[in-house]
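Meet today's protein:

…
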Amino acid sequence: MITMTEKAATHVARYLERRGKGVGLRLGVKTTGCSGLAYKLEYVDELLPEDQVFESHGIKVIVDPKSLPYIDGTELDFAREGLNEGFKFNNPNVRDECGCGESFRV
């Protein structure tokens, strides 16, 4: 199961409204970085038959079946720190992260 905080859901809802289309946010992983895996996010206009769909605060989070074992149980948050803002991933499966925070290992 994938969840979002209310802040993250509000941010995604605003963005989808500005885009004028979209059914939700896709969360997945890709092989890259110092530690092996990195998160990838993209807005989704059409669901694929194999997609796993989770809903949190009225927003759909879409995950492909290959990514789900690495991110199952993750909570997606949105935070502002000084001049920077972005998504934060609270993933209980992470065993190690690289120093720059861009990649992780499960």
